[in-house]
Amino acid sequence: MSLHIFPTVKDLLLGGDYNPDQWLHRTDILDQDIDVMQSLGVNAVSLGIFAWSTLEPEEGRFEFDWLDERIDKLGKAGVHVFLATPTAARPMWLACKYPEVCLTLKDNSREYPKNRHNFCWTSLVYREKTARIIDQIAHRYANCETVIGWHINNEYGGYTDWARCYCDRCIASFQSWLKQRYNNDLEELNQAWWTHFWSHTYQNWDQIRPGDHSIEALGLNWYRYNADIMCNFLKHEIASIRTHCSKPVTTNMHGHLQLADYVKLAPELDFLSYDSYPRTYGKPDEELHNLYQESLFLNAIRSLKKDRPWYLIESCPSVPQYFHPQRLKRPGTHEMHSLRAIAHGSDSVMYFQFRAGRGSIEKHHGAILIQDGPTDTRVTREVRSLRQRLSNLNKILGSTCKTKVAIIFDTESIWGLENNHGGPTADQYNEIILKHYRALLELGLDVDVIDQTADFTDYQFITAPVAYMLQPNFVERIKSFVKHGGHFTTTYWSGITNDDLLCSPGGRLGDLRDLLGISSEEVDCLREDERVKLEDSGDWLGDHSESLSGQQYCELIHLNAAEQLAIYASEFYAGRPSLTRNQLGQGAAYYQAIGLPRDLLRNWYRSLLQRAGLVEFITNMPHGVMMTQRHKQNKTYLFVINMLGSTTQCDLPRDNWTSFADNSPAQSTCLRPYDVQIFVKSQ
């Protein structure tokens, strides 16, 4: 299935955040903006994201003439507009006149009017004032043809603890949220949180305040509450637009997908958008690691709405100012990064920002144009070149990605591990997930990135490394998936707690014990220099020319209904199973009790995928090359991406591929440094 969200858009979008409100004193710059956009092939902008103080310079006085003029000129130049709600940073007059709208910090002090993500989510005054400015904007531009969609707020969740408010109203709202979650039963909460430890038992709801890190479930549920209140605020903003306009809405997701619950936000949005800033200042292996990580995030976004494209709404054509050192993108990398987003399902390449400002905190952030400097630069030439490449790809507009393979990357599990003491950390979880994801991509697979609540229907193979915290009904649903022919695998440190970080009843693995056919005693965490030998009872780990060994973690498990596929061959647990399989119904559930180095992990997955009937999708990838596919009607488009600065040869998957560029048959291809080549086949 393909779904084209914007009927008037006939080309892949290229553009960025446009902030003319910073340049209203320079009419020459504003005129130049339109000329440069046309010369570069820019056909979309996000407009007005932080323009509240310009739109409403004092309470109740609105100034739209400048925005009318900009939208009119953009429309005449063929530039589509995502019009923003300017609510991610409130005006100074609002903060000074109504202090309650300001964020309250952990120490209970009011945040002085500064930064962004600087408002209280529950403030009735803030909701009233945001509804009024959105109402004014939506009423004025609802029927404007140039405006094709709405950009809600900006980067919900902020960074680290920026966006969480600790005022008395938010604390009271949190307490009410807890009453609903625990059925207004304080003893149920006390049991779920194990508060009798250290005599932390609550006698009334008013005693519950965030900040006590010894009560792990308190921190976890504080994160959940904030995610829910963000979602509630998003609905509030959308409702103000819907009074006047039904055009599609989005908000730009960002970061490591851990500062908001995007699984909850996604259903409220008509299309998804993401800000992509892969770190490009390290050594080649570090940069490659970062690109695999960014690939994981891009696939997580696309997996939230699989029936439609998503939109890269922020990226950088040069170098973000927050990178240190500020190492410039090498020739070819800007185009490779941009086309990689297209390959992962985006229908746009957009930047922050079109023109950098002369002052304030992000004046050195890479942009298409640098302040009021020259307009013919290396960056603008690369943007123009990218426009030409995108124009040749318009056939894929509206196409989507689909795959039979998924990895579970669970935001709530990350929150749980951030509040957990002992066991793996959230950072270790992230690295293990990435290691497994990369192993699958190195086999030429396209991989959806989902959470424990996702629909498993479309998949044949699901992996859930370190499923530490089990969400309600997850095990029951994954067991049904296996019984009906699915293949599932998980690893050490799985099934340790429930969704309130309460240890699983009956010991480790919890309800996974029946699915996996094993039980678990404990986990041996190895030093970095330690290795434990393995013996493979079949050909599960590939080439046996060298001795097999694992690293990092060794879980001590017992067989119940499962069969062992490999055993430990050293340490005091030699002879115990390290890899297992449990046949269940028409499918199978596998367990990896030991940490495997990258080459063995890749071999392990190859074995599992072959047995899952996915051998036709497996391709041995050269180092630093990835493949991904998009589908539209009866066509499949294969993107082959060289992420390294060296030439390499790559075989294509077994099929009748032809070059997208010249329609010539192809079974392999030679990739130049940072090259992206595209191939097509008919179904």
UniProtKB/TrEMBL annotation:
PANTHER family recorded: BETA-GALACTOSIDASE GANA
GO molecular function terms listed in the Swiss-Prot or TrEMBL record: beta-galactosidase activity; metal ion binding
Gene Ontology terms: cellular component: beta-galactosidase complex
Family designation: Belongs to the glycosyl hydrolase 42 family.
Keywords, sorted A to Z: Glycosidase, Hydrolase, Metal-binding, Zinc
Encoding gene per record: bglY
Record EC number: 3.2.1.23
Domain Beta-galactosidase trimerisation: 404-614
Protein name stated in the entry: Beta-galactosidase
Residues that hold substrate according to the record: R116, N154
InterPro entries xref list: Beta_galactosidase_Trimer (IPR013738), Class_I_gatase-like (IPR029062), GH (IPR017853), Glyco_hydro_42 (IPR003476), Glyco_hydro_42_N (IPR013529), Glyco_hydro_b (IPR013780)
Annotated CDD domains: A4_beta-galactosidase_middle_domain (cd03143)
Entry's Gene Ontology BP terms: carbohydrate metabolic process
